[in-house]
Design a protein that fits this description.
By secondary structure, the protein is mainly beta. The chain is built from 1 helix and 20 strands. The protein has one helix at residues 20-27, and strands at 30-33, 42-45, 63-68, 73-78, 95-99, 105-109, 114-118, 124-128, 133-137, 143-147, 152-156, 168-172, 177-181, 192-196, 201-205, 211-215, 220-224, 232-235, 241-244, 250-254. It has a 16-stranded antiparallel beta sheet, with no helix packed on it. The longest helix is centred in the first third of the chain and has 8 residues, at 20-27. The N and C termini lie far apart (138 Å).
Length: 257
Amino acid sequence: VIKNVKAGDVSENSKEAINGSQLYKTNQGFDILVGQDTADNRANVALGQDKKETVEFAAGNSLEVTLDKNAKKVTYSLKDDITVGKDGEAGKDGKVTVNGKDGEKVTIDGKDGKIESKAKDGTTVTVNGKDGTVGAKGADGTTVTMNAKDGTIGAKGPKGANGKDGASVTINGKDGITTITGATDDKDHKNVIALDGKDGKMGITGKDGNSVTLNGQDGSIDMKGKDGKNAVNITTKDGIVGVDGQDGTTRIVVKDG
């Protein structure tokens, strides 16, 4: 054993002997750090061991990694099929957001199975797999919603200058009912038109309660005045046209022939 060897020059062209302490330093190797600098996120790769240590470049979720041995090059790339988050397991819900240069944004959220596309002016289109809806919302608050669960399509205008609800249209595919509602005025009144394909009726209700109902099943027409008063009913039962006024008073009777 040769002792007390002076530290030699460690350089490209050096021909000097080096001592153990210098070899110790080189054998320390290097550390690998992932994320925040903590003991759990740091690993050491030692040099000068009898068996070489290996550093593995592993691909995470939806990634794949390739190695070009000749070029000593490691390349990461996305898989053709991308999965974010864990299916049916505890943890964070998967979410992907793509931002456009002008303020547009597309978000895929695994929590509710939702896809949302948002334009620069705030116009938004949303597909929600959890509740089975497809909806669009304009920058002014106008909305259109299609609901696959209950078979409805609803369109609603923005609120008026008075802060009340705007006009709306609702189509119920299951019951065959279409309801058209006008904007609400300052007295919370609104005009309503209802088309009932199931019962064969069509009704119109004015802001003050005036209404007209056409009944296709019995061929009758019902009319009511303000607040439902002064009702009039027109019937064509048994080929006879009759008009009944308030309290059942017959006012006009027309017979065939």
